[in-house]
UniProtKB/TrEMBL annotation:
Organism of derivation: Branchiostoma belcheri
InterPro entries per the UniProt record, alphabetical: AGRL2-4_GAIN_subdom_A, CUB_dom, EGF, FN3_dom, FN3_sf, GPCR_2_extracell_dom_sf, HYR_dom, Ig-like_dom
Residue span, Sushi domain: 242-306, 390-449
GO CC entries: axon; plasma membrane
Stretch forming the signal peptide: 1-22
Protein name listed in UniProt: LOW QUALITY PROTEIN: uncharacterized protein LOC109469753
Domain of life: Eukaryota
Length: 1105
């Protein structure tokens, strides 16, 4: 082994170190800043064994460094070694061993190049080479080449030789030690001595294949060429291509690109691993082919792991909340068993052994289905099932009630039937039903019995015509008294009880009784409720009222002519309770009556004895003249009132029978439903045309002279009658036969004829020589209300007499609201507006269901024909009725009230739409509201339920019943025209109709427009009057507006209850044909609008339309 050792020595001493067998060689280096250290015979081999020492002195220890640069090292750790030793002082040189503890040592071998640095005084380099089994040409015998230098400590050392020299030359330092260069051995060239005759790129000499790079390597005496192969090649000359094995697709995955699994991959190729969908990859995601033919991460494998659980999807039904059906104590659970799918194609579903359908008792259940695949991934379908068996609490049986049966106990849907015990009546429904919310439905059940008999009757505050009766009712005990009836008995009719007061409120215990004078009374009281009446109470004490003068006059007074000049007066005698005392007599008054007020005669009178008398004959009166008759009743206490108005009668036997006039009217003149005398018609010039039986004509000398030579000699009585009757009004005039009669309604003349409902008879001569004209209305209608006037004229002078006609029709009743939806426990207020034409106050009654409302506290009269009913406890589906009656008949209006809970979700809310307030309405119901904008009638709007999400919504409003005043007034004028009263002309009606029809009309106005055209057709057919082209155009444009598409929705609503638009088209066609017949011959007519047209021409001989 060869060992190189460097040691720092003192400047004036020489260190001698030699082995016993080694060849000594040593050098002391001092005074030079730079130098070279080379093994003997370098670069050739040296002899062995060998031990050489080089000692370098530091001129400035501690401030300078000694650097040794090992430039070429052919040493081998098996044969030689370099040792570096440093010393601080001269005293250290006496040590015989270099391995003292006061210095560091470092060994180098194996061809490495390095730099050694020391700041101490001496640095010693020692080379030791020993004999080995290697031959003399061994690389370990060639030694080394190094340089050294000293420099201050703050300077940077030079690098190791920057030129490799390929071990084929010396690495020399520049003179200033600023760099290095190569000094090539013989046969080598190049900057780094890297070329020779085999490898030289400059001469394109390269023994390496596949673009390998050749390099000349000289190691000692040996020279060789080394090929540096490109990536992917190997071999001494790079002749072998390196490949990696074929890769396989992992299960449920693949390798890409395809060559990775089809052929061997070359160095640098990268193959990628991917997994199928729903699989998760583990292990390397790619591998790269290495230069050694192995893949990166060779021992690691890619796996595709199934981590996706099976999927139930929509087959898992989800949580359920079930309730029992009616009368079922268990709930049927029925659903389709869920199924699952998995990406692997295999799935197993485990679940409860019990399969639906199955009946379950009440409680909470959990059903779990588990789906698993081969990778043991699992999915769960968990169904939480809540089963509620709805039951109602034990029902309480009210007083006086018996249960006849329960359909299914207290389960939901069970019906309990209640009946009342004997003597009691069930109020409301007798059935209670267990509802879905576990509460008994159907309202409270009450069994009410007939009330107990009142007792302890007492009379107090006794007066001439009144007394207070008090009583004590029994406690109710489910026998309430709704009201009381007070009856009386008199000595005039013993044991015959009559009703004095039919209604005394149930909470009253006394009542003021109005009595008649001179009657002996006894009283009793009966309690009444919905079930029936109590027995009559005990009879009260007697009370005899004192006598007084009569307070009324006889009823049914009649005056009828008999014989030749007599007049019989008849009346109905006063009853027991009207005489007021003993000594009853009747006093009759009469006087003659002329038409003029100044012709009235003086009153005459006569007394008839006897309370039962009922007639009296007035003798020797003037025949056929009218007389006024009045009656008065007298008794021992005084005289009663005189009858009014006077009764009118004619002396003689002409059959005039007149009843007593109505209060507040003038003396009668017209005869209603009277038999008219034979008539003699007159020609246009006023001369008379005798009939077959010329009546007897009385002389006019019995009458005073007339102021104008003629006058109307009878008075007219204001008439009030029922619609649909026949009315005759006779106008009698005295004077020349040339007199003319005219009839007027208001300011319009009546031009009536045989075809009209109102007719005027020709002028006739009466038996007494007077002239008369009769106006007949048959039948009467509401349009006939008003003032009628008979005018008689002669030579420019006119006299007239008038009367007012009131046609009584059934009251009109309007109930607001017609329908209502209210919350539970909310009060309901209904307003009934009643109009009774004719000035007669109607009788108004309220009903809830079929029961009349008798509680006066719930009813109030608001005045102006308005009545209010307030209901505090509203019952679901109850019908409320307002009934108004008069002599013409009865009219009712009904309202239905729906009760909903506060949490109801099937109710359309209150809102304002198209200027109408629409109230809360339950789905399926219709809300009625007064028409807007001053129109009359009702508008309707329906609330429906959406089939998709079960939310309520409003439909569009329906105004088919709404009409406005302008259409109503025009229809009234048209009907008056067809009745014979010329309030206007048919041309004016057509013009007005055209002006008021617009493209947007209420459905009611559409109907009235059709009725107006129909009335115009009737007028045309009856009068045969010619019509103008302008009239037809006005009617055509009116019909065009009515039939506009803007009114389509109203027509569709109207057609639900009538023929709709076909009706007006039929009337229009009929009207245009009538006009065509009135055209002049050969004159064409052509009129059209946006949606209608009429074309016609009347030729000379034939009609073509």
């Amino acid at each position: 082994m060869m060992l190189l050792q460097l040691t720092l020595l003192a400047p004036l001493h020489l260190l001698w170190v030699a082995g016993s067998e080694g060849q000594p060689c040593e050098w002391y280096l001092e005074g030079k800043r730079n130098g070279t250290i080379t093994s003997p015979n370098f670069p050739s081999a040296h002899k062995t064994p060998l031990e050489c020492i080089w000692t370098i002195r530091n001129p400035k220890p501690g401030r300078n460094y000694i650097y040794v640069y090992l430039l070429q090292n052919y040493l081998s750790c098996q044969s030689s070694a370099l040792t570096y030793l440093e010393y601080q002082s001269v005293s250290n040189l006496t040590d015989s061993y270099i391995y003292s503890s006061n210095f560091n040592s470092r060994n180098d071998c194996g061809g490495s190049l390095h730099v050694i640095r020391s700041s101490k005084a001496f640095l010693q380099v020692k080379l030791t080479s020993m004999l080995t089994r290697l031959s003399s040409t061994s690389s370990g015998l060639f030694g080394f080449n190094a340089t050294y230098t000293t420099m201050p400590t703050d300077n940077q050392p030079m690098p190791i030789c920057s030129q490799s020299c390929s071990e084929a030359g010396f690495c020399r330092s520049l003179q200033d030690y600023s760099g290095f260069y190569c000094e090539c051995f013989e046969g080598f060239s190049g900057r780094h001595c890297q070329y020779n005759d085999i490898c030289d790129y400059r001469r394109r000499l390269n023994p390496c294949l596949n673009n390998g790079t050749c390099t000349v390597v000289k190691y000692g005496a040996q020279t060789s060429v080394v090929c540096a192969c490109q990536r992917g090649y190997l071999g001494e000359r790079c002749e072998t291509i390196i490949t990696c094995p074929v890769l396989q697709d992992p299960p449920d995955g693949k390798v890409s690109p395809p060559p990775c699994r089809d052929s061997r991959s070359r160095v640098g190729d990268t193959c990628y691993f991917t997994c199928d969908n729903t699989y998760v990859q583990s292990g390397p995601s790619f591998k790269t082919c290495l230069s050694d033919g192995d893949w990166t991460q060779e021992k690691e494998f890619t796996a595709c792991r199934d981590v996706t659980p099976p999927y139930f999807g929509d087959t898992c039904p989800g949580d359920m909340n079930l309730r029992n059906e009616k009368c079922e104590n268990k709930v049927l659970l029925n659903f389709t068993v869920p199924t699952a799918v998995d990406n692997s194609g295999y799935v197993k579903v485990d679940g409860p052994e019990t399969k639906p359908p199955i009946y379950l008792a009440g409680g909470q259940y959990t059903w779990i289905y588990t789906a698993s695949d081969d990778a043991k991934n699992e999915a769960r379908c968990q169904i939480a099932i809540g089963v509620q068996v709805v039951k109602c609490p034990t029902i309480k049986v009210p007083h006086n009630v018996e249960v006849t049966g329960k359909s299914c106990g207290s389960l939901y849907g069970s019906e309990v039937q209640f009946v009342c015990k004997e003597g009691f009546k069930l109020m409301g429904s007798g059935i209670r039903t267990c509802g879905p919310n576990g509460e008994w439905e159907g309202g409270d059940v009450q069994c009410i019995g007939a009330p107990y008999t009142p007792f302890k009757l007492e009379l107090s505050d006794k007066r001439a015509t009144s007394v207070i009766l008090s009583w004590t009712p029994w406690p109710s005990d489910h026998r309430p008294s709704e009201h009381f009836i007070v009856q009386y008995e008199t000595t005039f009719e013993p044991s015959k009880w009559r009703e004095m007061i039919g209604f005394v409120p149930g909470n009253a215990t006394k009542s003021l009784l109005e009595l008649s004078p001179f009657v002996n009374y006894r009283f009793r009281v009966i309690a009444v409720n919905w079930v029936g009446r109590s027995d009559p109470s005990d009879i009260s004490e007697s009370y005899h009222t004192p006598p007084s003068a009569p307070e009324v006059f006889p009823k049914e007074i009649q005056a009828q002519g008999i014989y030749n000049r007599d007049l019989i007066v008849r009346w109905e005698p006063l009853g027991w309770y009207e005489r007021n005392g003993p000594g009853v007599q009747y006093k009759i008054f009469w006087r003659i009556l002329y038409c003029n007020a100044e012709l009235l005669g003086d009153w005459e009178s006569s007394i008839v004895q006897g309370e039962e008398k009922s007639s009296y004959v007035i003798l020797n009166l003037i025949r056929d003249l009218p007389y006024q008759v009045q009656l008065q009743v007298l008794n021992n206490q005084g005289a009663g009132p005189i009858s009014y108005p006077p009764v009118l009668g004619h002396a003689g036997d002409q059959g005039h029978v007149l009843l007593a006039g109505r209060p507040g009217t003038r003396p009668p003149c017209a005869t209603f439903e009277a038999t008219l005398p034979p008539r003699i018609t007159s020609d246009s010039d006023g001369s008379l045309t005798p009939g077959e039986n010329v009546p007897w004509m009385s002389s006019a000398s019995t009458f005073p002279d007339l102021k104008y030579g003629f006058d109307i000699v009878n008075f007219f009585e204001d008439y009030s009658g029922i619609v649909g009757t026949r009315l005759l009004i006779t106008c009698i005039a005295r004077g020349p036969r040339r007199m003319h009669f005219k009839w007027f309604k208001g300011e319009y003349r009546i031009m009536a004829s045989d075809w009209t409902r109102i007719s005027v008879s020709p002028k006739v001569i009466r038996n007494d020589g007077d002239l008369e004209s009769v106006l007949e209305i048959n039948p009467t209608t509401p349009l006939d209300r008003g003032t009628y006037r008979c005018a008689v004229s002669d030579q420019g002078v006119e006299r007239s007499c008038s009367l007012n006609i009131t046609v009584l029709t059934k009251p009109s009743v309007q109930l607001d609201p017609v329908t209502a939806t209210v919350l539970v426990s909310s009060p309901v207020k209904l307003t009934c507006t009643v109009r009774s034409p004719g000035g007669v106050e109607p009788q108004v009654k309220w009903f809830i269901g079929k029961d009349r409302v008798t509680d006066l506290r719930a009813i109030s009269n608001l005045g102006n024909g308005m009545y209010r009913l307030t209901v505090l406890g509203t019952v679901e589906g109850t019908k409320y009725t307002c009934m108004a009656s008069n002599a013409a008949g009865t009219t009712i209006a009904e309202s239905i009230v729906t009760v909903v809970r506060k949490d109801a979700h099937d109710v359309c809310g209150q809102e304002t739409f198209q200027n109408v307030e629409w109230g809360m309405t339950q789905a399926g119901g219709v809300y009625y509201q007064l028409c807007p904008g001053g129109s009359t009638g009702y508008a309707t709007r329906q609330c429906l339920l959406n089939d998709m999400d079960f939310t309520p919504y409003w439909l569009e409003p329906n105004f088919v019943q709404c009409t406005t005043y302008d259409f109503e007034a025009l229809l009234s004028n048209t009907r008056m025209l067809t009745s014979g009263i010329e309030v206007t002309s048919v041309e004016k009606i057509a013009e007005t109709l055209n002006s008021i029809t617009t493209p947007n009309l209420y459905g009611g106005n559409l109907r009235l427009a059709s009725d107006i055209i129909q009335e115009m057709i009737l007028y045309k057919e009856k009068t045969r009057r010619k019509m103008s082209k302008r009239e037809l155009e006005d009617v055509l444009w009116s019909a065009s507006n009515v039939l506009s598409l803007y009114n389509k929705e109203e027509w569709m609503n109207l057609q639900e209850g009538s023929s709709g638009s076909s009706w007006i088209l039929g009337n229009l066609t009929r009207y245009s044909r009538l006009v065509t017949f009135e055209l002049e011959e050969g004159k064409p007519l052509s009129t059209s609008t946006d949606n209608l047209g009429t074309y016609g021409m009347l030729p000379s001989r034939e009609l073509g339309v």
